[in-house]
Design a protein that fits this description.
- The chain is of the alpha+beta class and 870 residues long.
- A hairpin with a 2-residue loop joins strand 3 (69-70) and strand 4 (73-74).
- Helix 13 runs antiparallel to helix 14 (396-406).
- The chain contains 25 helices and 37 strands.
- 39% of the residues lie in helices and 26% in strands.
- The strands form 8 sheets. Strands 1, 2, 5, 6, 7, 8, 9, 10 and 11 form a 9-stranded mixed β-sheet that branches.
């Protein structure tokens, strides 16, 4: 079977078993602070497992795009060097939410693998959890007994907690798991060594293909395991490994998942995949990494220097380095592979098709940028290895300079060093990096307790679309302690507070108890589809009814700005074209920013057009039309714009203001006229093909205009209230240019006179013409003197020790023949600068220095003459 047939058969099989097929969630996670990327198929169902919301279906199945390059699931270093690890991969999965359990999961896994995929039953092994007496967990005899129906006892293996007990994180749902492994070695190899001895031992041909997780416990913050009231099934099978087993290959990269991409890399570079070990590794790295990079960009995560963006940049730079070093690519390569990826995977993941141009442009700019610094960084690393060729060890301090100055992630430096037989002092590197991390940790460290249940509830309800106040009950809370303060998190059964999401900031306000106690809500955030209210303290009584009231003024300003982003989106598409797509936003009460796809700077004329259009839409005073629980297909048929990288359910909310129609979960004003006034603050580029407009509305826009008017008024006053400010400024600029040219000529004449003077006073020291300048001088004049002497004399040194505006200054020039014999002005002037309590530098032929001690100038000159004479 092809990879497409394998994927389709999986989904169709579980659909026949009563599972609902759901689409893959975005690979970049928006509302889970514990994860940057989707690293397992279950991530999009976390709120169902956690009990934050009621599952929509008892059984689901899907193929989920996953990324494992951060946190405890980090496969980056193995990628390309072995045959089965990947950064981005597809995880085929089936789930039960309180419906079926171990029997059905094992029965169906066996049926699919042996009857549909027709894998050789003699090559399959199952592992089950051996138990953990320390935690009071019994062996998973239930799963073992189910496997006995299909496998002999010698192919049902016991596994430890590391391999056969799955946990979502330090806390939360968890349980034993049963892995299915396949032995794809040759018959001769299998006869020589029992496959059971190679399971979970890292053998590249005895591999895990499917993990059946039985979620039956909840791990509390103190480590205690509590049985869950409902038991769940969570399975994951790597498509790439399954393809290797089914297509008779001994490497994932030989399957049709990667073979087309590797063929394209070979064609573009003129290198053969089997040319050498390093060539093969490089092509595997690039074939893998281009998928991770492209899918991340399609899901809205651009490469950057922080958090998830930094992870993507690391992956991209790792691929560029392999292409540069082992495939001879000094020009961008990755961006040229995007069409092949789109052709091969676009039918299963249509976001690749629609985002193709953006993906290509972002990757190309990133490649060009890194290639400019890569050569310098590699030269520096080579020099470090030459310097340390005896010890074969590079200091952590030097590695940190590569990281900090040249953008080399430490794993890239380690990779290059390892290839040359060197090691990096990782401990001292960590110490350098730790200083930064410690500051950050102190600012963000939080010690969390367990959620404390106050009262039962089924699913949280947001009432803020209709209400500004509501009667609520606290259903759970958690205490948080950081280095600087303590606070708590509150969850209500229902809430009018909007939780920060979709770029819109969270609501603030108060809750008031029946006895009149008022608790301030300082923010509202979303975590795994749960709205969490931040408060500085707990109410004295947690039970009973509270009146929740949002800050109405802040909400209204935020809603006005959110509606303005929709109007801006519409105006940009009207002025610039329908290729405009939103790539991100931040909506606050005072201003907003709007990121969008566009490939060039917007002209001032078009910015004015966009601004005028938005203000026209505001004056039209269109009322808000709101449609809830609309099927996605119906919403799109209405013309509603969806954002790539967002996860939408089967039913969505549609917001319409006139011709502006978008899928949106945020709060909006009742009519556009409430916005009042719209003003663009700035327009800039934030990445290749992505630009940002910052803007504001209402009274904040009025303040900007008032400030600009005040500035013009001040300028008029400075120009004696001239009626034509522009003409007056142009006249000033012209006069200033004239004065500047005159001053430049005067300085040149001054320099000529000074040069003649120092030449007359020239002394010859050991065959070197030494010319010295002292006194009070302009640095630019001194520089001109130096360069005139340089063009006229050989075997010459010009030394200046002078003061300027009360500060001590030095300058040193060596003629070109002297620098060719090893004289270095930059090095020498740093020595002399010590006498004036300063520092300096420059080039080998000309350098300058400044200091705080004019009294040391004479000694500095003596020192320079001494160095010249040596």
């Amino acid at each position: 079977m092809t990879s497409k047939e394998i994927r389709d058969n999986f989904l169709n099989f579980f659909e026949s078993k009563g599972h609902t097929i759901v689409p893959s969630a975005p690979m970049v996670i928006k509302d889970d602070p514990t994860l940057m990327f989707t690293n397992a198929g279950m991530n999009q169902f976390k709120d169902w497992f956690l009990g934050n919301s009621v599952p929509k279906y008892p059984r689901v199945t899907d193929t989920q795009k996953c990324l494992r390059v951060s946190g405890k699931h980090n496969d980056l270093e193995e990628v390309g060097h072995d045959t089965y690890h990947h950064t981005m991969f597809e995880m085929l999965g089936n789930w039960s939410f309180g419906d079926y359990f171990k029997k059905e999961a094992i029965d169906w896994a066996w049926e699919l693998l042996t009857q549909v995929y027709k894998l050789d039953t003699n090559r399959l092994y199952a592992t089950v959890f051996e138990g953990n007496p320390q935690e009071g967990i019994d062996p998973d005899n239930e799963a073992a007994n189910e496997w006995k129906k299909y496998l002999p006892a010698d192919r049902i293996l016991l596994g430890n907690k590391k391999d056969n007990f799955w946990e979502m994180g330090d806390t939360g749902p968890c349980g034993p798991c049963s892995e299915i492994h396949v032995d794809i070695r040759s018959d001769a190899e299998r006869a020589a060594v029992d496959g059971a001895t190679l399971v979970n031992q890292g053998h590249h041909l005895v591999i895990e293909i499917w993990n059946l997780v039985f979620i039956q416990y909840n791990r509390k913050a103190n480590g205690e395991l509590i049985p869950l009231p409902q038991k769940h099934v969570d399975t994951g099978m790597g498509l790439e490994r399954l393809c290797m087993a089914m297509q008779g290959k001994q490497s994932n990269y030989d399957t049709d998942v990667f073979s087309g991409m590797i063929k394209e890399i070979s064609a573009l570079t003129g290198k053969d995949y089997n040319e050498s070990h390093q060539t093969g590794v490089a092509m595997r790295v690039i074939a893998d990494h281009i998928r991770a990079i492209s899918f991340s960009i399609a899901d809205g995560q651009l490469p950057s220097n922080v958090k998830a963006g930094y992870v993507i940049r690391r992956i991209l730079r790792r691929a560029v380095r392999y292409a540069y070093t082992f495939l001879g690519c000094s020009e961008p390569l990755l961006c040229r592979l995007v069409p092949t990826l789109v052709s091969e995977m676009g039918s299963a993941f249509p976001e690749l098709v629609s985002q193709k141009n953006l993906i290509e442009k972002v990757i190309k700019e990133e490649e060009e940028s890194f290639l400019r610094t890569l050569e310098k960084g590699i030269r520096l690393l080579d020099s470090l290895m030459e310097k340390n060729k005896d010890s074969k060890k590079i200091s952590g301090e030097d590695a940190f300079i590569l990281y900090d100055t040249y953008g080399f992630p430490i794993d890239l430096s380690e990779l290059i060093a390892r290839e040359k037989g060197f090691t990096i002092d990782y401990k001292s590197f960590e110490e350098e990096l730790g200083k930064q991390k410690e500051r950050s940790r102190k600012a963000t460290f939080a010690q969390e307790g367990d959620w404390i249940e106050v009262s039962p509830y089924s699913e949280q309800v947001f009432t803020g679309y209709e209400k500004n106040t509501d009667e609520v009950h606290i259903v759970r809370y958690k205490k948080i302690k950081t280095a600087s303060k303590e606070y708590c998190q509150l969850v209500f059964d229902k809430s009018p507070f909007y939780a920060e999401s979709g770029g819109q900031v969270g609501d603030t306000g108060t809750i008031t108890s029946a006895k009149g106690e008022v608790i301030a809500i300082t923010n509202t955030v979303k975590e795994n589809n749960l709205s969490i209210h931040i408060a500085d303290k707990l109410p004295s009584e947690l039970t009973g009814t509270f009146t929740a009231e949002i800050d109405i003024e802040k909400r209204q300003s935020t809603a006005n700005n959110h509606t303005a982003t929709h109007l801006l989106h519409r105006a940009l598409r009207e002025v610039l074209g329908n290729h405009i797509e939103q790539k991100g936003s931040l909506v606050s009460p005072t201003h907003f920013r709007f990121d969008f796809s566009h490939y060039e700077k917007i002209t001032d004329e078009n910015i004015r057009k966009v601004e005028n259009l938005v203000n026209n839409y505001i004056r039209e005073n269109s009322s808000r039309d709101e449609y809830t629980d609309v099927p996605v297909d119906v919403a799109k048929s209405m013309g509603a714009i969806a954002l790539f990288g967002e996860k939408y359910g089967e039913s969505v909310r549609v917001i319409r203001f006139g011709d502006s129609i978008e899928l949106c979960g945020g709060t909006h004003t009742s009519s556009t006229g409430n916005i009042g006034l719209f003003k663009i603050i700035s327009e800039s580029a934030i990445a290749a093909g992505v630009r940002r407009i910052e803007a504001t509305t209402g009274v904040h826009a009025e303040k900007i205009i008032e400030n600009e008017e005040d500035t013009i008024k001040t300028i008029k006053q400075l120009l004696n209230n001239t009626p034509n400010v522009v003409n007056a400024i142009q006249k000033l600029v012209s006069e200033n240019d004239t004065l500047g040219r005159n001053l430049e000529e005067a300085m040149k004449e001054r320099a000529k006179a000074l040069k003649e003077r120092v030449v007359q006073d020239m002394e010859v020291v050991k065959g070197i013409k030494v010319m010295i300048l002292k006194g009070e001088h302009n640095p630019e004049v001194v520089k001109n003197v130096a360069f005139m002497i340089r063009t006229e004399f050989t075997s010459a040194a010009f030394i200046a020790g002078y003061s300027h505006e009360g500060k001590a200054s030095l300058a040193l020039m060596y003629s070109d023949d002297m620098t060719s014999h090893g004289y270095n002005a930059s090095k020498d002037i740093r020595e002399a600068a010590k006498f004036i309590n300063g520092g300096g530098g420059g080039q080998n032929f000309f350098a300058t220095a400044g200091g705080k001690n004019p009294d040391g100038i004479s000694d500095a000159i003596v020192k320079l003459i001494e160095m010249v004479s040596k």
